[in-house]
Amino acid sequence: MIRIGIDVGGTNTDAAMITQDVVLASCKIYTTGDIMSGVRTALSRLLEISGQPASAVSAVMIGTTHFTNAVVQRRDLAPTAAIRLGLPASACLPPMTDWPTDLRDAIAGRGYMIAGGNEFDGREIAPLDETALRGIAAQLRAQGVGSVAVSSIFSPVNAEMEHRAEAILNAEMPGVHVTKSHEIGRIGLLERENASILNACLRDLSRTVITAFRDALAQSGIQGAMYLTQNDGTLMDAGFAERFPVMTFASGPTNSMRGAAFLSGVADAIVVDVGGTTSDAGLLRGGLPRQAGIAVEVGGVRTNFRMPDVFSVGLGGGSIIRQAEGGITVGPDSVGYRLADEGMVFGGATLTTTDIMVAAGGASLGDRSRVADLPPALVRDARRAITALLEQCVERARISADMLPVLVVGGGSILVDHETLAGLPVMKPAHFAVANAVGAAIAQVSGETDRVYSLATVSRDAAMADARKGAMDMAIAAGAAPDGLEVIDIEEIPLAYLPGNATRIRIKVIGDLHV
Amino acid sequence: MSEWGYVIGEEDLLPLSLGCAVLGTGGGGNPYLGMLRTRELIRAGAQVRIIPFDALDDTATVYALGSIGAPVVGVEKIKRGDECLHALRALERTTGRRADALISEEIGGSNGIEPIAIAAQAGLPVLDGDGMGRAFPEVQMTTFFIYGQACSPAAVADDKGNVVTFDPVDTMYRLEALARAVTVQMGGSAGMCTAPMGMAFIRRAALPGTVTQALRIGRAIVDARATRADVLERLLVVADATLLFTGRVTAVVREMKGGFSVGMVMIAGNGAYAGCTARIAIQNENLVLWVDDAVMACVPDLIMMVEHETGEPITTELVKYGLPVAVIGLPAHDLLRTAQALDVVGPQAFGYAGIDYDTHRL
To answer: Given CB 3.0 to 4.6 Å as the disulfide criterion, which of A189, A221, B245, B339 pairs with A54?
Structure first.
């Protein structure tokens, strides 16, 4: 089976073709303004290099920053309404209270609260106010709003009201896109609701983008299935991605970490992805990135996404070197993709980290004679500054005294010619420059549940079984083969300050793609 | 009274919530939602004045209030917003004594902000002080109750407008048990208000200046981050705290015990503490710190964990494997160090029979 992974970044579009555990071809091209022609170019180049016919490609996995960027740049966002089911609870904080005004304006954000929602143990806070919901639907239909996010209190425990609300909205507003919060996130109403609203406002764009990706594949003659990668390093099929574009957030770092694991054959390591502008370091455990535990902001909005815990510094292959009074500074600004024009070894006038590495003899690239006159002290100090930043990354990602290897990947890996960093051995796997595309190509499928159970009323075993089944259903819905699903993470947190054995159970399963 | 104290502005809310979280010593819940609520009230025109104890004469009536329940419930079932206000009004009706000011039961965590949000709705000032100087898990663990606040009447209120008034109640321990049982029926979180206190009693029994202390700590963190100064160093100076340990969390063990999350955090030392191992016993809050098996600090002294670089306070729910942390200590107020107080909030009250507070006090 031949798979192609594509990582569409802001600067580069990376692509890799793999079969079993062999990389057949890879390429790196600049991301084009319309994105899709870049994807087409990458696809045709892979086919050309590998000599494989398009018909041999059974699946294409795409990692994209398109949706993150749309939110960050406040563009292409659909007018969206947020309806919360939970009154009388939560009345003091209406939806989008903590949003930046410009983002709220960009989606013409309308927030509503009506009676409904559940308690932690599943009891109703109040019956769903269907009359009020129909009234809101009529209003939204009149205003031409086509995207709605519905969030019900404790819907991760009981999703019934969100389902009912969706049915009513579908009946009253034919063609409406409804995002239900329990499908998006975990316990933590505000964060889950925020993520749901972000998802809803991306629904128009997701249809356009997914269609364009499909067209790019079709034009390249590829008939295999298409998937997008999510923030936890797993896949969703194109139909699912169209419904849940928000799940693509932060998939880039995850892909490069998983790609590094695959390319090196190492499952436990620190991965440093050196790009053009930043370096991202994270910890790989059992082949998967370690997840961040605290709230993650996207475009200024607090969410509770499953994001890898990644530490970033402003160090990349294009980072600008300056001599200041206190000594040498590196970055955080970068010439980025203009390195090939502006870097000194390429005939430009800007001193970059790449120029320093060439001058120091750590890399051969461009015209070395152009940096031959750099003062040796400058080169030495700049290299030290680069090393210090890299070691800071490694130290920050390291969480134990274990002698883990450091896997270095990414287009800016030229900055690393070290044998060790922070005392740990450095490895650069083959195809390191396109590790992110490889990571996309090998991605698996996952499902997750996060619910609170009252162990006074159900047995712990029954609660675990219910949570596991919920996670497996999610994975199968996302495209996993039902056989061979594996539980990779179980977290059981007793709820503090409450008797009655209320316990929060989070289970994650992962499995191979059903092709 | 208008010349006393200061008015809380929108810009004070982030520092205040950070400071409250630091003083939460790992517990007390996240003040983020309370901060947002208060921000909305202030934007809508409400004014809350923080006043020193000297601002009121001895005849003034003060009510202490705060939330009761599980922080995890609180982040999902956000408050209606006036639960504590309903509990307060019920007690005012029962006793016939109107509130002249509010005071926080516990400055640590979300309850440091709660009285401010309620004061914004009730048009009352908030006294610069509280009953714990930190966070504790149970209702009776305030200097108010320790030094003789009446156990009743007390009231809890839910988001549906239900209020349960406890009157009479025989002991503060029974009040804790009853209030918590009702809280579960109310959906796991509720607003609570306890019996009115005279200002003369407050002067004797409350910990003064803790709202301002939280603000000062929070401002130091915000300011140090903005100027890229050493956050930890600034925090130690402004809080007058002692650095007890630095390192990385290597294990977190949690289990259930009587409705509370009990556990142990293990930390491998780095920097000046390289080669040493620290252990922190947690029951929602950080209770005891050992370094290489020697007790370094214990309740009621404050054992606070912050993320080393950012100064971000770490709650016992968020503490996780690999986190780089600094553990800092702050002596508890003298009112928490008497024999009478130690019976309620000392190591023995938390099941550490073998730890003598006076031997290990900071």
So the answer is: A221
Together in a domain, A291 and A388: yes
Option in A91, A119, A187 nearest B81 (CB): A91
Q: How many CB atoms lie within 10 A of CB A430?
A: 11
Domains delineated in chain B: 6-210 (3.40.1610.10), 238-360 (2.40.390.10)
Q: Do B261 and A495 touch (CB under 8 A)?
A: yes
CA dist., res. A165 & res. A113, Å (int): 13
Residue A75 CB neighbours (<10 A): 10
Claim to verify: residue A59 and residue A102 sit in the same structural domain: no
Indicate whether A101 and A40 sit together in one domain.
no
Question: Which chain B residues have a beta carbon less than 8 Å from that of A120?
Answer: 70, 72-73, 76-77, 187-188
Q: How many percent of chain A have pLDDT more than 70?
A: 96
Share of chain B above pLDDT 90, in %: 82
Predicted confidence (pLDDT) per residue in A178-201, tens digit: 999 998 888 889 999 999 999 999
* Residue A48 near residue A116, CB atoms below 8 Å: no
Residues of B in contact with A153 (CB under 8 A): 76-78
Nearest CA to B325 out of B309, B340, B337 is that of: B309
Please name the residue of chain A whose CA is at the shortest distance from the CA of residue B313: A294
Predicted local distance difference test score (pLDDT) of residue B181: 93
Domain assignment present for residue A195? The answer is yes
Statement: residue A381 has pLDDT above 70: yes
Whether A440 maps to a domain, the answer reads: no
Q: What is the value of pTM for the model shown?
A: 0.86
Residue A23 lies in domain:
1-76+203-249
Q: How confident is the model at residue A499 (pLDDT cuts 50, 70, 90)?
A: low
Question: Which carries the bigger pLDDT value, residue A185 or residue A153?
Answer: A153
- Element (H or E) spanning A8, and its range? strand A2-8
DSSP state letter for B322 = T
Q: Are residues A7 and A117 in the same domain?
A: no
The phi and psi torsions of A147 (rounded to 5 degrees) equal -125, 130
Assign A41 a pLDDT band (cuts: 50, 70, 90).
very high
CA angle B130-B133-B138, nearest 5°?
85
Amino acid letter, B89? R
